[in-house]
Amino acid sequence: MQKKLDRKRLAEKIVHGIFLILGLVTVGCVLLITVYLVVSGIPAISKIGIFDFLFGTTWDSTAAEPSFGILPFILTSIYGTAGAILIGVPIGFLTAVYLAKVAPTKIKSLVGGAVSLLAGIPSVVYGLVGMLVLVPTIRSIFNVPDGASLLAAIAVLAVMILPSIIKVSMTALEAVPKEYEDASLALGATQTETYFRVSVPAAKSGIAASVVLGVGRAIGEAMAVMMVSGNVANMPSLFRSVRFLTTAVASEMSYSAGLQRQALFSIALVLFLFIMLINAALSFFLKRGDGHE
Questions:
Q1: What is the rounded distance in angstroms from the CA atom of residue 221 to the CA atom of residue 158?
Q2: Which of 72, 73, 120, 261 has the least CB density, counted as fewest CB within 10 Å?
Q3: How far apart (Å, rounded) are the C-alpha atoms in residues 38 and 162?
Q4: Nearest-10 crossing angle of helices 2-48, 258-292
Q5: Are the C-beta atoms of residues 184 and 198 closer than 8 Å to each other?
Q6: What is the predicted pLDDT for the residue at 253?
Q7: How far apart are CA 252 and CA 223, in angstroms?
């Protein structure tokens, strides 16, 4: 008996050690990426000037006298992400509530399979469909010279973040104990009131996590956005061709050199800090909300 206990304890220690090593590897990778981006991105910012780099409105990296202002990229990323979240989060959230609480089994299975299929579609396919279908549609409906625009990018990003929001929100809603809903119904609340006033608040942390995943997907997407946004360094406007932070790096890195290459690493650093800031802000507001309850 003692030998069996010793073996179990040894096995637990080994498993704990493996988990600890994996956790440290993850933290180490994040630190390595952070250090690499800082070391690679700071030189260009020092040469260009932080004000001219962050608030300059002209990006012309291949001119005889190059300009490296990334304000159009920053604003485009902010507007594009915000637009995708404003469209995608309500649709994804309401779909998750319907599938988790209301939908019949057959519809839930069918729609759930479609959502899983959406999650598995490569980014380039989203971009191709957007380029062949969405861009001409925008051009004809709004009578603009080119449908490749910020609006097209927002629409594509809104569709791309739906699987993350729906799947994670569904899992959180389905994990809410049935006793909560039974108690609410017993007190006279309707099913709709129960879902939105009992189930949703109980699953708040999971739903918030789905929004964080959606924000990360929207900010970090490059290929699909590049194919539908026009990829031109303009100040953001709904019907103009624009360039995001991610597409700025992806479109020029292959032929960049010297200060231009350093500036692209600086853009990557800004994007990295931007994502960290958003995640930190969301975590702060979530903890603050939990603290007031």
A1: 11
A2: 120
A3: 32
A4: 130
A5: yes
A6: 86
A7: 13
The two three-digit tokens of residue 230, written as one number: 């026009």
- Specify the amino acid at residue 160: M
CA distances from 120 to 8, 34, 78, 190, 219 (A): 40, 29, 26, 37, 19
Mapped onto helix, strand or coil, the DSSP state of residue 59 is strand
| Distance from C-alpha of 141 to C-alpha of 138, rounded to nearest angstrom | 5
The whole-angstrom separation of Cα 258 and Cα 197 is 57
Residue 70 has pLDDT above 90, yes or no: yes
Neighbours of 33 (CB within 10 A): 12
Tokens 């690499």, residue located? 36
| Phi and psi angles of residue 238, each rounded to the nearest 5 degrees, phi first | -60, -35
* Placement of tokens 């973040």 in the chain: 161
Nearest of 63, 31, 61 to residue 44 by alpha carbon: 61
Q: What is the pTM of this model?
A: 0.88
Whole-angstrom Cα distance, residue 245 to residue 159?
20
Determine the Cα–Cα distance for residues 101 and 227; give it in Å rounded to an integer: 37
* Cα–Cα distance, 109 to 223 (Å, whole number): 30
Scanning the structure block, which residue is given the tokens 């932070």?
Answer: 245
Residues 89-113 pLDDT 10s: 999 999 999 999 888 889 989 998 8
> How many CB atoms are closer than 10 A to CB 142?
12
Identify the bridge partners of residue 242 per DSSP, sorted by sequence position. Answer: 230
Rounded Cα distance between 166 and 207, Å, is 9
Q: What pLDDT does residue 290 have?
A: 59
Q: What is the residue whose two structure tokens read 């000037």? A: 49
DSSP characters over 60-89: ETTSSS-EE--HHHHHHHHHHHHHHHHHHH
